[in-house]
Amino acid sequence: MTTLTILPSNTTFEAEPGATLFAALKAAGAAILSKCEGKGQCGACHVFVHEGRKGLSKVQRAENEKLDTMVGVSSKSRLACQAVLGNDPVTVEVLSFV
Q: Bridge partners of 31?
């Protein structure tokens, strides 16, 4: 298990390595937005990863291309539906809520 902390609520819980951030956030009860059912097309599940970025899967081409079309992204930006958890603790800021 890995520790996942959600900002701004500062909620911490245990998540299964190998799960996407989106799935882990939903399992924890976080009301994160998605319009494309986790296919990396809508960008609604955009999060900032404040800690543990190296513990997540690498950004793939499709995710990078989607992030390039969005306003307000930074080097901490990920699409929660595309980022897969590893074993390291991760802290994310959820930007859009249902």
A: none
